Amino acid sequence: MTTIATREAPPEAAPAPAVPGRRRRWTRLILPAYTWLMIFYFSLPILVMIVFGFNDTTGRLNLRWQGFTFRWYRDLFEIQALSTALRNSLLIAVISTLIATVLGTMIGLALGRYRFRGKGLYDLTIFSAISAPELVLGASLLSLFVSIQFARGFVTIVIAHVAFSLAFVAVTVRARVLGLDPALEEAAQDLGADPWTTFRKVTLPLLMPGIIAGALLAFALSIDDYVVTSFVAGQVETFPLWVYGATRIGVPPQVNVMGTLIFLFGVGIAVGNALLARRQRG
């Protein structure tokens, strides 16, 4: 009887761990490099505006760098028509933001919390107002004011700005409402708080980051709107309308200074809102 000797195959060696090479190190830099490139691309027009606010130009044609000066900050309100246009824009933006924030908060709260007949149509109307081109909205509002023989001016601009910013506030607040924990309000009512006290001390503080975000968005949309405003302005001139008219003969450096101050004001409010939200979470 013969025995056949079998040799066991040696166990396969475990693969050596891959050593990250130069190629892998380069791929890790792609996303950060792309991110900073996009940040620079979006910030470039703002940086040019800020820089040319210090340009020591001798005329209204502020396109070539001629030296550094603080003169235009000192003579910011030297052009009376530009100052009046800026004042109109700020006043319109504040009024329309207050109205849109109050109405949009109530709409967003209703859409995010309650079920009622026609809610689907309400959603469709809100998102249609966001997606509609400004040209269509401006022409529609112009037809409305002309058909009812309503004089165009300051009031029609406010109405128009509320019309297109209201939807943005409502959507922002609605998203905040959907993220709230209803157990917090139920706990307040179990402890004896009435509905108004619960809303004032529990619901409203929780909604405040969304309300502030919606108000900032409405303010930004209002103060730089040109298309809709040009249809309904009448004889009232806002900051964007004045700047567009000035491009024919040259935009003065004060425009860059005013744009810089408005930009810094918005950044300051946004940073303050972020710090407030972080403190509330902490």
Key terms:
disordered N terminus, 282 residues, mainly alpha, 71% helix, MetI-like fold
Q: How many beta-strand elements? A: 0
Quick one: overall form? globular
What's the CATH topology label?
Answer: MetI-like fold
Helix count equals 12
- How far is it from the N-terminal to the C-terminal residue, by CA? 84 Å
Radius of gyration: 29 Å
How would you characterize the overall build of this protein?
Helix content is 71%, strand content 0%. Mean pLDDT is 84; it is low at 1-5. The chain has a single domain (80-281), classed as MetI-like fold (Orthogonal Bundle), CATH 1.10.3720. It has 12 helices and no strands. Helix 9 (195-223) packs antiparallel against helix 12 (253-281).
Write the layout of secondary structure elements.
Elements: H1 22-27, H2 30-52, H3 71-74, H4 80-113, H5 119-131, H6 134-147, H7 154-178, H8 182-190, H9 195-223, H10 227-232, H11 239-246, H12 253-281
Helix pairs in contact: 2-12, 4-7, 4-9, 4-11, 5-7, 7-9, 8-9, 9-12
What is the compact description of this entry?
The radius of gyration is 29 Å and the shape is globular. The protein is mostly helical and 282 residues long. It contains 12 helices and no strands.
